[in-house]
Structure formats: structure tokens, C-alpha cells
Amino acid sequence: MPPIANLILYCRAGFENECAAEIADVAAALGVPGYCKAKPSAGYVLYVPHDPVHAADLRNIGVDQLVFARQVVLGVEFLNQLPVTDRLQAVLPAIQRLGREFGDLRLETADTNEAKELSVFCRKFAAPLRQALQKGGVAVGTAGTPNLHLFFLSSTAVHLGWSIPDRASPWLMGIPRLKFPTGAPSRSTLKLEEAFLTFLSERERADKLKPGMSAVDLGAAPGGWTWQLVKRGLRVAAVDNGPMAEALMASGLVEHCRIDGFRYRPAQPVDWLVCDIVEQPSRIAALMGRWLAEGQCRNAIFNLKLPMKRRYEEVRRCGEIIEAAVAGGPLAGRVRFKQLYHDREEVTGYVGA
Ligand SMILES: C[S@@+](CC[C@H](N)C(=O)[O-])C[C@H]1O[C@@H](n2cnc3c(N)ncnc32)[C@H](O)[C@@H]1O
């Protein structure tokens, strides 16, 4: 493989600064200091190591350990001014230099409005590229091999790179394409579904979300998150002064508690605490910390609505609040955050044994 030139991080447009600050910290801690190239609202960040000798260590960075990056791609070459009449001729040799066997082929763009047209181009380019790869002796679909990424900035400029399946997002552009489920009371439902997919493995989902288990949903109305839990057969105490969707109440699995989520306490410890209350992040973090530290829930998923400024710092501060609460216990060091695709100016947190 040719040497790694940079790390390409895909993120939500508008969160480039947060993504850059975070990767600079993580890479420096790993002994790969460098600098970021990030344009406002571009939807991606490039991290360039100061010393190419250490660039190989960037392979150790997994997307799971980052809050603001949806995908991490090890960039090897930037191809600019591709000939419009024959892009394949320019792209194919560069891919052949990169490797001969790949798990998957991903033609991607940043997740921005401007790039929407470009994704149409990517879809059209995929079939001829696959054919050319096959003819050119590059196999795609070999399990256990790196994924090949072509991250297009325009139809004539592309970053070529690869990712390690274990350390990267399994989804194209790092975005899970979830369908809005019929019958769910609100679009927020997709946040919790994505959180389950992001933070829990298939095995964990089967083990930790079983019929008969118990949950509390703070800030539940109209019930999108409760709906995800009920769908899996959990009994839910839905805490909110607002009205819950009637169909959900008819399931018989939901108890609607019209009280303040900051005062509610369960009679017995529950398997899950979920919380989507719109409040200051540090207040939510303190609330989650208290439930977890007192053993009132075994797992928690919660949303933090971020302020306009110093958002990365705020997430770190909230992490510290929860870590301080659970210090010395089995949940110490197990606080994770991710800005999910279905999150907006928010991040989602998960703590679980
Ligand atoms: C973003 S909505 C929740 C949406 C819900 N997760 C869904 O999927 O349908 C926030 C909810 O928090 C509730 N809320 C705000 N402050 C609260 C508090 N202190 N205690 C309980 N609920 C609260 C609001 O009434 C509102 O229904």
C-alpha cells in the first residue's frame, strides 16, 4: 500500500471546527501530531500529520472513538483535474497502486446540499468503474480486506483512500439510511434507532433489548423513543407533561407519568434510561450521572442539545461530569458520545455495562 497522506473525516456540515479540534487531540495523544484543513460547512475535515513517518499510526484511530466524525478514511492520493472524457483512465492506475483486493467500493461525497448533484454523478460512475476494476485486476467483495473509498469533491477532483472495516463506519458516507417506521409518533424515533445501531453490536441489541425488560423515557412525548422500546417489547414509564400518542398507550406497555423528569425516580432499577429532554447539557449529564451512579438504570442513552459555541468543549465537560459520577464503579470509562446523522445541533450519549 502507498503511504498514508492524511485522514479524511466526514462530519455534519457546520461541525468542521469540532471535528478538527477532536481529531487534533486524538491524533496528538496517539503520537501523530499534525494540522487540520477544514472549510466552513464543507462537511469534511482533512487531518495531515506533520511527520509522514508516523502517518501509518493513523490506522489505529477508529470512528467509534470520535464524536463528530461519521467516517474515517485513510487518504493516499488526491486526483485533481480528472479528464472529463475519460476519468477512468486517471483513476484506475491510482487504485491499482493502492491494492488489488478490496471489501467494498464506496463512491462518496460530503453530506452537503451542494454535493447532492455530485452523488448522482457518483451513482452513474459506479458501474463503469466496477467494470474497469474487474478488467484491471482489482477485486471488490473480498471479505476481510480494506474498503476502497473515492471521496469526490467535484466530478473532476477526488480523494482516494481506504478504511479498515473494524475501525470504520459500515455505512456509505457514514450515514445509516433508516426508513421512517410506519406508526411511530415522531421523527425523533430515528435518533434512538440510530443510537441502538451505533452504540450496540447486533449481539448486544439482542441481549440488552429483550421483551419484558424495563425502561424509563424522560421527555417522552409524543413517544418516538418510547415507540422504539415498545417495538422491542420493553415496558416503558414515559415521563412528560405533554400528551403521548394514543396508539402507543394502547399497547398496554406504557405508563404515562406526568411529572418533571428531573424529579422522577423509578420504584425499582430499570434496564434502560433514555432521555430527550431539551435542557442545558450539563444538567442532563448530571441527571444521567446520578441515575447511573445510584444504580437506578443499567444503560442510558441521552441527547445533549449543544450550545452555539464551544461545542466540543461542552461535550467533553459533560463526559467528565458523568465519569466523575460513575468513577470507581463498573461503568467507569464507558461513556461514549456520537453526533448521529439524525441528530442536528446535538450529540447522543451512551453509557452501558
Ligand atoms: C424533543 S421532545 C422529545 C421527543 C421524544 N423523544 C419523541 O421521540 O417523541 C422533548 C420533550 O421533553 C419534554 N420536557 C421538557 N422538559 C421536561 C422535564 N423537565 N421533564 C419531563 N419532560 C420534559 C417536553 O415536554 C417535550 O415533549
List the helices and strands and how they pair.
Layout (H helix, E strand, L loop, with lengths): L5 E6 L4 H14 L4 E5 L5 E6 L19 E11 L7 H12 L2 E2 L2 E4 L7 H20 L3 E2 L6 E8 L2 E7 L25 H11 L2 H7 L5 E5 L5 H8 L3 E5 L6 H4 L4 E4 L12 E6 L5 H13 L3 E9 L5 H16 L8 E4 L7 E7 L1
Parallel strand pairs: 5-7, 6-8, 10-11, 10-13, 11-12, 13-14
Antiparallel strand pairs: 1-3, 1-4, 2-3, 4-9, 8-9, 14-16, 15-16
Helix pairs in contact: 2-3, 4-6, 8-9
The structure holds S-adenosylmethionine.
The sequence of SSEs as H and E is EHEEEHEEHEEEHHEHEHEEHEHEE
CATH topology of the largest domain: THUMP fold
Q: Label the overall shape.
A: elongated
Helix content: 25-40%
Gyration radius from CA atoms, angstroms: 22 Å
**Class inferred from helices and paired strands:** alpha/beta
Strand order of the largest sheet: 2-3-1-4-9-8-6
- How many helices in DSSP terms? 9
Overall number of domains: 2
Domain Ribosomal RNA large subunit methyltransferase M THUMP-like: 86-163
Subcellular location: Cytoplasm
Domain RlmM ferredoxin-like: 6-72
Catalytic activity: cytidine(2498) in 23S rRNA + S-adenosyl-L-methionine = 2'-O-methylcytidine(2498) in 23S rRNA + S-adenosyl-L-homocysteine + H(+)
